[in-house]
Amino acid sequence: MGSRHNGGASDRAALGNGGAPPVVDKEVDFANYFCTYAFLYHQKDMLSDRVRMNAYYNSIFRNKHHFHGKTVLDVGTGSGILAIWSAQAGAKKVYAVEATKMSEHARALVKTNNVEDVVEVIEGSMEDVVLPEKVDVIISEWMGYLLLRESMFDSVICARDRWLKPNGVMYPSHARIWFAPIRSGLVDRKENDLEDVIDDWHHFVEDTKDAYGVDMGVLTQPFTAEQRRYYLQTSLWQNLHPNQIIGTAAIIKEIDCLTASVNDISEVRASFSSPITLENTILCGFGGWFDVHFRGRKDNPAQQEVELTTAPSKDAGTHWGQQVFLTHPPSCVTEGDSVSVEFLMYRSKENHRLMEVELSCGVRQSSGNLLPPFKSKFHIE
Amino acid sequence: MGSRHNGGASDRAALGNGGAPPVVDKEVDFANYFCTYAFLYHQKDMLSDRVRMNAYYNSIFRNKHHFHGKTVLDVGTGSGILAIWSAQAGAKKVYAVEATKMSEHARALVKTNNVEDVVEVIEGSMEDVVLPEKVDVIISEWMGYLLLRESMFDSVICARDRWLKPNGVMYPSHARIWFAPIRSGLVDRKENDLEDVIDDWHHFVEDTKDAYGVDMGVLTQPFTAEQRRYYLQTSLWQNLHPNQIIGTAAIIKEIDCLTASVNDISEVRASFSSPITLENTILCGFGGWFDVHFRGRKDNPAQQEVELTTAPSKDAGTHWGQQVFLTHPPSCVTEGDSVSVEFLMYRSKENHRLMEVELSCGVRQSSGNLLPPFKSKFHIE
Fold it and tell me: Residue limits of the Protein arginine N-methyltransferase domain (chains A, B) (predicted)?
């Protein structure tokens, strides 16, 4: 056989548990997900994300009143950075829960940063951990691509419902998902790549018939489908330039972290229309991103609200980038045209931490003329 | 958080089940391993490997007497190619066992190639499958990197002990692992890459202290260890040029597929000395590869023996390539010098399909002078 190891998201499809409800095998979940966070190079990636770091740092130190003398729970503490900051901001006690062995590094950091009297690192999954008390603040950096990939907010909800005091505060307090039409050179490239792969397949089928007397033709259709999914139906990580946004961005989901239920976030359904704001450009697809806000709560607001946005930016990209969904073929649009979009995102049946997106859109030109509609399914992996 | 999905071999280390004996959770094994083989692009890779294809094709069609009118079991049939060839060579019945959904494609191939009366595709793991009869031949392409990675031969042994007739034949019948000293530009590159990553880490530690008041210095040692493992202690996939081999290659393992037990293959221990055969060159490490032979059995030999070798070759590379183990620093050697090697390979505790290698070597110059010895642990992932 001989395969480079590529365990991974879409691979789980091999289990093919078709229409069955998502079953979460903890061991498999660990092999597929948590493991990623057990590597320091990955922690370093996140700790080097200035936008991310500044937002959390400012949200804590500009709102010390939320932390001073308070009890804090950090869900998925990783290296422990948010727990340490919370302690430095005056927290009385910080419970830092981490599912992976990263907990050992967090413990070391807590010690060398002299907050070991305040921060207690607990290795375990949030769903299983038992705390000796309820907390005033739950802080967590739980956001995945397009906000909800990784489904980690489930653990934050679980923590909130079990351990947050009735008047407790969530950090962050609010989250939003954005979606906007974009232009991009990627469509042509991906379509060409796909074409090359399929051409190559046809030669392979011929060669195999000639050299080895076996006709592989019957696999052309499933191979094409598999490659189509890979090249055109899997969303792409991109750091878009703001000038690639060609229409008005729409908010397709708003989450109040204090009240949202797993039900509220396990499906995102949006229907909106976006005016094209650029002259004579090409609609190549859509970009999706998120922002979160640190506002405290109505009866205990932040002294200074902080925003963390992963929107396209000339100079302040994040490790989240944006998720790009390519529409094909691209269509010529111009100012005055309008793109109507139907968006549906839900969790993959094979892996609840991955997402599937059903996207359809149509362009109404200023003339009233309608361009042929686009409809496709995408996978966020 | 925000992570590209990178489930993968080394990730399993996150489970950190330390000294515990390998426990195989079937679901995890599927997520980590079998899944890979459920993709047609990967099957195509293997089906496009001419060395691999020609060897199996010739082994079957130049030894039809082993197949004509016989019952055959194909372990891990994948696309079904070996099963179809066996039928075309005159087999009376072929059981083609496949653990993944690839079985459905195999079924389609079997049908369109008009051997559905002979080939029965069975989806399931070899350990669980029950056949209605014993077979005359077991054929399987079970070889992983350095032969034993993937530990798939275990399933062939299980199939053999349960389903092969006393006088049955194994395809392939024999296997060997080779090891040889090499020169390569990779050592310098990898050492420089590691240096850059560590430099970058030091800046990161400074920045984090200055900008965010947290001292990460205590993680420098574990980060260095993690990156050292990645850059210098993980074997590399390479298609070596024969002129990179600078000493006599040694056989470090021989397997008789008819008699080998799981015990025989779960550890490879070798101690050998390899004369340097090039003048004024640099010992940069070692290359490992394998070959398998199709000889039938003593009392029922092949009419024409066939060999499948993955040795370094100018023009006949395979998708297996070779596994390269870098020794550092490189040492100058020349004809007349001799490298003594102690090699030990065993299965990873975290994932029984991956391998760990303990390698030590020393160079005795023709003058009798000994160069400083090298000793390191490697991971095959």
Answer: 192-361
10 Å Cβ neighbour count for B377?
12
Mean of the per-residue pLDDT values for chain B? 92
Alpha carbons B3 and A319: distance in angstroms, whole number:
8
Closest CA to A158 of A136, A129, A132: A129
With beta carbons less than 8 A apart as the criterion, state whether B378 and B357 touch: yes
Q: Which residues of A are catalytic?
A: 141, 150
Task: Grade residue B21 by pLDDT with cuts at 50, 70 and 90.
Answer: very low
- Residue A114, Ramachandran bin (φ over 0: left; ψ between -120 and 50: alpha; else beta): left
Q: pTM of the full predicted structure?
A: 0.90
pLDDT exceeds 80 at position A102: yes
Residues 212-241 of A with CB under 8 A from B: 212-219, 222-223, 226-227, 230, 237
Cβ distance B218 to A100 less than 8 Å, yes or no, reads: no
Q: What is the ipTM for the molecules in this complex? A: 0.89
Question: Residue A83: CA atoms inside 13 Å, Cβ hemisphere, count?
Answer: 32
Considering only CB atoms, which chain B residues are within 8 Å of A88?
A: 213
Residues 6+ positions from B63 with CB-CB distance below 8 Å = B294, B296, B302, B303, B304, B306
Mean pLDDT (whole number) for B144-167: 96
Q: Which residue has the tokens 């019957």?
A: A218
Q: Which of B101, B145, B207 has its CB closest to that of A16?
A: B101
A137: helix, strand or coil: strand
* Chain A closest-CA separation from residue B327 CA (Å): 22
**Cβ–Cβ below 8 Å for A8 and B11:** no
Best mutation target among B34, B35, B380 (most A Cβ atoms within 10 Å) is: B35
The torsion angle over the Cα atoms of residues B220, B221, B222 and B228, rounded to 10 degrees, is 100
Q: Is the predicted pLDDT of residue A348 greater than 70, yes or no? A: yes
Residue A185 CB coordination number (10 Å)? 11
Q: Which residues contact B96 (CB under 8 A, 6 or more apart)?
A: B74, B77, B80, B82, B83, B106, B110, B119, B120, B121, B122
With CB atoms and an 8 Å threshold, state whether B215 touches A320. Answer: no
Interface of B with A in 273-312 (CB under 8 A): none
